[in-house]
Structure formats: C-alpha cells, structure tokens
C-alpha cells in the first residue's frame, strides 16, 4: 500500500485505522529496507498536515491547529509527485506513531518522536515539524533544540533562521536574536523584530538602549522596513520616549495600513494620558477593520479611560457578539454596567462570567457586591462564600464580615470566619485577624485577646498578628504587652516603620520616655518621611518635649496631608496651649463635622475646653 492509497482510503476514521495498521505492519516488515515519503512544504507560521505519510485531511487533529501568533488556523499543504526523501522502516514507524499520537492529542509523544528522528536523520522537514509542535504546546526547551537543529540543517531557509531568532529572544539573548533577524531580512524573509523588542520589555534600560542601537543599524540598510521601525518604536515606548515612538508609528502608517502600528500608537497615546486623542485616532481605523477583535478591544478600553462608558459598553457588546465565549469581554461589560449603576445588566454579565472556572471567583465577588447594594444580605453572603482561592478570597471575606457587622450579625461573622479557617488553611492568619477585628469592634476585648493569643501561639512570627495584638493591648492599657509585641516585630524586621512609629508614639503619649520615643519615631520618619501618620507622631513627640514651634511645623504638615480627626486633636491641642484658642476651636469644630464619632477629638475638646 502506498501513501496515495492511504489518502484515498482515509475517507472515514475506521477505514483510516485499518489502513494505518496495515502500513505500520509494512513499515516493520524486515524485508523492506526503506519506504519513500512525499515532500510536504509548509510555512513556519502555520501548522500543516504533519507528513505526507498521513495526509488524511480532517483525520489528524494536529492538522487543524496553529502555533501561538498565527493569524488564522488554515494549513497550507503542497505535495510533490516526485519522491524526495527516503527513511528507514524504524524511522517511518516512529513518525507514523507520532501521527497517531497527534490524532489522539498526545502531543508530548508526537514531539518526542519527531525530535528524535530529526536528530537521527538530519532531515529539515522533520526538524521543522518538531519545532512547530514544540512551539504549539509551549515546550520551551524542545522548541529551542528543534529550532537550532532546523537552522543548522537548513541554513538558507529564512523561516528556520527566524525560528532560531525567536527562541534566542525567549532565552534572553536579545542581541544575538536581533542579529539573526537581520540575516533573515537580508534573505528577504519575514523578520519579526517586533517579537525581539517585546521580549526585552522587562530588561533594564541599558539593555533596551543597546537593542535600539542594533535596530538603528538595521534601519540604515532598510530605512522603510515596518518590522524594524515597529520594533524600535516598542523599545522607545518601554524607555518612556513616547513622542519618538509615535513618530515612528506615523512613519509606518504613511506607507501602509499597519494595524500593529495603529495599536501601538493608541497604547502610547494612553500612556501619555491623552485618551481623547487615542479615541479619535482609533475610531477611524475601527471603521476600516470592524472584525479586528484586538483593535476593537483596545478602542473599548480607551473609551473606558476617557470616561465614555456608554460608547465603551457598545463596543464591548459588539465584541461579545463576535466572541460570545470570551470571559474578559463579559468581565469588562460587567464592570462597566456595575460602575454605571445598571445592576440588572451587571448581574446578567457576571452570572454568565461565573460559568468560566477561570473567572468564577471574580464573578461571585461582584455578584456579592451587587446583592449587598440591593440590601439582600443572605444572597450576598452566599456569593461571597462561593469565592474560592485567589485574589478575591480575602476581599470577599472582608466585605462579608463588614456587611454582617452592619446588620449587627456578629456571631454569624465569627462563625463564617472560623469555617473559613478550616476551608482555607493557607489563609488562617488573615482570618484570625478578621475575627479579632470583629470582636474589637464589639469592644469584646477579652475575647479578641483570646483569638489573637491562639493565633500567635500557632504563628509566633507573623508580623500582622503581633501588630494587631499590640494595638489591642493599647486599648486594654497593657503597655507591657504592647511594647513586647512591637519589639518582637522589630526583632524580625528592624526597619518596620509602622512598628517603630507605634511604639515611639505610645512611649511619648503614655509615658515620659521621650528620648526613646524620639529615637524610634525619628527612625520611622527617615524610612517614610511622607507618611502623615509618622509626621503626626513627630509633632506629638515634640509637643510632649514642650518644643511647641517644632510640634506645630510637623502637625500642620501632617494635617495638610491627612485632615484626620486625631491629627486635628493634636494640632488643636498645641494651638490651645500656645494661646491660639479660637483657631484651635474652629479647627476642632470643622474636624468634628467630618468625623462626628471621633472619641479622641471629643476627649481632647472636653479636657481642654471644659477647663476654661
């Protein structure tokens, strides 16, 4: 049986399997020295039928796939009626096994056989095939190996050199990759300088500057090559040279309608905080490329940034019609309708989004928020509890606890948090912290202390737990425990500004250990000079040392950054003591209007004004 007979027979799967078994048997038959294959030519960017031995269109699963970066999934197969390569029976057998493996989506086995036989035979077609499979399944080491082999045995093939350049870029060898791309360009191949530029995005500016110099050398020889221009524009954008990047995009667009250049210019305009310019620029191209999903998605996001939410929603709805099973589009529509106070529409989008495992927790979180907005705490609680491990887990429980607290359902909040500790052992410290906060809000300090003591016994070096217990100790006037826990934090992290500040402030406020307080708060200030809470502490330490002018400078600066009731209490007290009582009283009244429940502010006013 020859290959053409196999192709003809492969009209149905059962017929194919029968024929293949026969051919496999023939390939292993010792009387045959070798069996001839027909030549299959394919482009690097597409995944063709693997070999002419099994060119059963519609039978092999691999034939329908395309590697990452492919613009469409169409395979290009060209046959030659002349036999151009011969393989030993064992080689052919392994290749046929690879085909069957690919048909059954066992791409690891298919790749292994192709790569092994490519090395054994040195055949360019097999090396190319091994590279295509490795690139498709993301087998980085294998794709590098196959690309190197392919380029070495097919050195005059620009597609092979481009494959090697891509793998060099992925491996971080950007300069070598750029040089290889230049060789591809010299051979009139499709050189992806853009890929090299994007791959270098996370490198330092010095590395990118060196690449820009390499691209400039290429532009001296090929001044109008859009790939080189685009690659350089990308590098300029990463280096913050946005205006220059836009000029290169415009240079490309004057010569051709290049959607990659369009999208890059749109992103650069956004980076320059010019959303209206980006919106107007992209709108023209959307009309010319209405089916380009990536371009429309960028346009929709630009509209969101430009606060054109109604228009953005319209664009996302078009995208949803084009890609009804795309979760990121459902998410965008859900967020837009959520922000636009359209709860019914938002619920619909998030319910659809919840069907995708990858986005289920995020969808449940927003469904919980929507139910909470509608004051349906039972439904909201259920949605919050449906959130699983991931970024939304802790925010979901924080929202749940706050919601239950607002409904004065403290016992339920504690019960849910204790259940969460069983369900999610990796997050136990966070749930202990939440439970402690719940009890502290109820002023159940003894119970809160029991919870935090239990937590710290299990997690003795957890800084957040130690800090929470220290703050509770301050409320319970247990300054010894407060100092013990804060110094415990500093033993773990000597530059923990929050612990330094808290201990220094407490020593200044509750004791006469002013020198220690000044040293601690001063160190915190060195670490975070712009933190208004630390600036307030600097002022309060100075006040306790009776350096009122210094205290005023710090406290006014703190109040300007953070007009908080506690800072107002401190600043007002210094003003009062200095004799500026009208200014102090006015300051307190304004602060009390903003924060009428501030205990420290009320206590300060009563203590000072009551003694007039």
Automatic annotation (TrEMBL):
Gene3D superfamilies: Tetratricopeptide repeat domain. The keyword Hydrolase does not apply. Keywords: Repeat, TPR repeat. PROSITE patterns: TPR. InterPro entries: TPR-like_helical_dom_sf, TPR_rpt, Ycf3/AcsC/BcsC/TPR_MFPF. TPR repeats lie at residues 429-462, 565-598. This is Tetratricopeptide repeat protein. It comes from Kistimonas scapharcae. The lineage of its organism: Bacteria, Pseudomonadati, Pseudomonadota, Gammaproteobacteria, Oceanospirillales.
């Amino acid at each position: 049986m020859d290959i053409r007979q196999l192709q003809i027979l492969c009209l149905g799967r059962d017929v194919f399997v029968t024929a293949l078994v026969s051919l496999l048997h023939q390939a292993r038959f010792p009387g045959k020295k070798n069996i001839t294959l027909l030549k299959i030519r394919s482009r690097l960017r597409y995944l063709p039928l693997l070999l002419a031995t099994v060119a059963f269109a519609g039978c092999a699963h691999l034939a329908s796939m395309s590697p990452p970066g492919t613009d469409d999934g169409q395979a290009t197969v060209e046959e030659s009626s002349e036999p151009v390569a011969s393989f030993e029976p064992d080689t052919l057998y392994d290749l046929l096994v690879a085909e069957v493996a690919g048909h059954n989506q066992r791409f690891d086995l298919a790749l292994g056989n192709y790569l092994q036989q490519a090395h054994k035979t040195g055949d360019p077609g097999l090396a190319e095939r091994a590279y295509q499979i490795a690139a498709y399944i993301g087998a980085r080491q294998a794709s590098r190996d196959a690309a190197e082999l392919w380029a070495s045995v097919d050195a005059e093939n620009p597609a092979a050199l481009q494959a090697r350049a891509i793998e060099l870029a992925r491996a971080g060898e950007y300069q070598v990759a750029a040089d290889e791309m230049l060789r591809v360009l010299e051979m009139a191949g499709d050189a992806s300088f853009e890929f090299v530029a994007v791959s270098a995005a996370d490198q330092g500016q010095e590395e990118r500057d060196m690449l820009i110099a390499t691209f400039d050398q290429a532009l001296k020889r090929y001044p109008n090559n859009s790939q080189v221009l685009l690659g350089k524009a990308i590098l300029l954008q990463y280096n913050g040279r946005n205006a220059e990047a836009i000029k290169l995009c415009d240079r490309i667009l004057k010569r051709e309608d290049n959607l990659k250049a369009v999208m890059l210019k749109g992103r650069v305009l956004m980076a320059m905080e010019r959303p209206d310019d980006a919106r107007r620029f992209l709108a023209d191209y959307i009309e010319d490329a209405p089916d380009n999903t990536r371009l429309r998605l960028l346009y929709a996001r630009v509209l969101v940034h430009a606060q054109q939410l109604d228009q953005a929603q319209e664009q996302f709805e078009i995208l949803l019609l084009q890609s009804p099973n795309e979760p990121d589009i459902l998410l965008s529509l859900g967020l837009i309708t959520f922000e636009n106070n359209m709860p019914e529409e938002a619920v619909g989008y998030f319910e659809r989004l919840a069907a995708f495992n990858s986005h289920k927790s995020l969808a449940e979180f927003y469904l919980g928020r929507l139910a909470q907005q509608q004051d349906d705490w039972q439904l909201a609680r259920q949605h919050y509890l449906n959130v699983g491990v991931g970024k939304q887990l802790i925010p979901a429980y924080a929202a749940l606890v706050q919601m239950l607290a607002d409904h004065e359902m403290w016992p339920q909040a504690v019960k849910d948090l204790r259940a969460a500790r069983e369900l999610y052992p990796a997050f136990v410290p966070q749930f202990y912290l939440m439970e402690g906060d719940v009890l502290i809000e109820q002023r159940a300090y003894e119970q809160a202390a029991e919870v935090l003591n239990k937590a710290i016994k299990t997690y003795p070096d957890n800084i957040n737990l130690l800090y929470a217990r220290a703050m509770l100790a301050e409320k319970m006037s247990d300054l010894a425990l407060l100092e013990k826990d804060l110094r415990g934090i500093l033993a773990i992290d000597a530059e923990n500004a929050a612990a330094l500040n808290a201990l220094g402030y407490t020593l200044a406020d509750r004791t006469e250990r002013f020198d220690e307080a000044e040293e601690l708060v001063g160190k915190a200030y060195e670490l975070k000079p712009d933190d208004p809470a630390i600036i307030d502490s600097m002022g309060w330490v100075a006040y306790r040392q009776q350096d009122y002018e210094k205290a005023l400078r710090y406290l006014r600066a703190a109040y300007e950054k953070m007009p908080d009731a506690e800072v107002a209490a401190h600043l007002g007290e210094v003003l009062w003591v200095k004799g500026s009582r009208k200014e102090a009283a006015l300051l307190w009244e304004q602060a009390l209007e903003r924060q009428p429940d501030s205990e420290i502010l009320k206590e300060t006013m009563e203590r000072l004004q009551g003694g007039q």
